Amino acid sequence: MYGKCGLVEEAKEVFDGIKRWNEYSWTMILSAYAHNGHFHAALGLFWRMLLEGIRVDSFTLSIAITVCSDLGDLSSGQSVRAVAVESGLHSDLVVATALVNLYGKSCGFDSGMIVQTAVLTMYGRFGKLEQAREVFDAMPERTVVAWSALIAACAQNGCERDAFRIFRLMELEGMRPDHVTFVSMLAACGSLEEAKTIHERIAAAGYESFVMLGNSLVSLYGKCGSIQDAKHVFDKITARNIVTWNSMIATYAQQGRGREVLELYERIMDEKLVKPNVITVVSILDACADMAALERGSEIHATHSSLSQEIESDIVVKTSLVNLYGKCGRVASARAVFDKIFARDVVAWNTMIAAYAQHGHDTQAIELYWDLSLEGVTPNDSSFVSILCSISHGGRRSRDAVSQLSSIREDYTNFTPKVEHYSCLVDTLARAGSLREAEELFFAMPCLPTEAVCFSLLNACKVHGDFDRAARVAERSFQLHGLVGNSQALVMLSSIFSSAGRDKLKDGFVGDVPSEESESFIEIDKVVHEFSAGDGSSHPRAEEIRRELARCVLDEQDSRRHHSEMLAVGLGLISTPHGRELQVVKKSRACWDCHAALKIISERTRRRIVLRDESKFHHFEISGACSCKDCW
Known about the structure:
Helices cover 65% and strands 4% of the residues. It has a domain at 520-620. It is mainly alpha-helical. Strand 1 and strand 2 form a beta hairpin. The termini are far apart. The relative contact order is 0.04.
């Protein structure tokens, strides 16, 4: 109010009296200065805002760009634009319009060209690729900025081949690419081979030391699954910023390397290298959720929420906290956090519905799904997967899942069922013992069934002793996916035919069964312990773990004691007070034999054991029963 009335000093006094500044208060004082012509002071406030770690939005950026425009300061305007790029807001219409205005007001012989380039950029960001190309073709002279803008437009709109073609044409015309060009080219890369090719060009051009390019390379290598290449680039960046660290953390998180994620976080905190932001905290919480590191994740959230109002109030952070509690078996705590989220988006709703579904709380999941619709939030594919999974894991009748899918298709005419939705139906039918219908749907699916679907159906075949059907399902899966990548199905198939007293599916069809390679995790006193199959001897307490497992259920020759989840449970048994619940995470599905062993261990040790595998949560009660009813 003071700012709009021209009372800047009074507005500043109110601002200084605020105990905890947030994004809104900073933007208001910035607007007050800009509105009243205090352009230099406004720009100074903007840079101070960034130094304080306050996240900027499109409105804040547009004010800063407009200030630069009023000052005729193109250099500062370009710096603000770089902030917009780093924040992912450069494609926002308000920001793009402010940039066009900035370039148009900037003086210089090439101001017309600058405006044309700005318009080209804006067309590209809003998906108008044809118009962007028309602007480019009409340019009397094309600078490296114009070429880079057209390449970026192609990359942003899924025309990666065109981006590479234009890049080659640019070089043929004698135009040397700059660091911005290479950022756009990295965005166009869709494979590791392409990433390495552009990386080589970056090094040859002398741009490898540019932090923005280094950040893009780390992120790209991470998306391509090459942790080694990402780490190599990361280590060579000397002036790392928070984007650099977040890119490396995301790379580890994408590959399920939670331990390395926490190690990087500890380096940031111990060495006070950069100030973690919302993206950092979200990545850490998600990594903790994947490892069921509830204590460590809760501690990290509490630490940063107390230091930053932005982090404490951010909806994405709160949603990640819901995810953490849900994946650690604390559904009531997840719901408590969810209920406190203001203006929940569809991701928050999906996360809470998924938490209910994972634990078999089908009634609560369905009720929440209807609440979502009543509050005017449009569900998406993930919403539908979660609600179908809740029906499957909750043990409802198979026709309930079919009815639900039909209802979704009627209510949302643009919805087309995908492999995840059909997989839920197959899983529900299999759990209900409707093996004939499950097999028919498995073979009739209009999309390629995944190995997980095959495993679920094979497991149901074992439960019901239907070995011939198991053979047909396995053959189909191997035809689609090959033997490589079907290790879990091979293990299950071997177990099925061993139970039936048969050695092979067909003569020579199944030879050696692959050994388990999946990792498992257990958190003890805020420390996450990771086990791989067969590495029990490498743990400092390996001998104690071996003796405890042998005492509980497994003899010396039992191969199950080498499985990663058994080693994690063994450590939990010898490291925690008697009767305390154990939480273990396994990256792949639990094998049949280990599942049976855990039921015995839970009963004999009088402990509840919660195992989260690739499929679902298994709650082993002290009675020796599992919540999955031996079908997962």
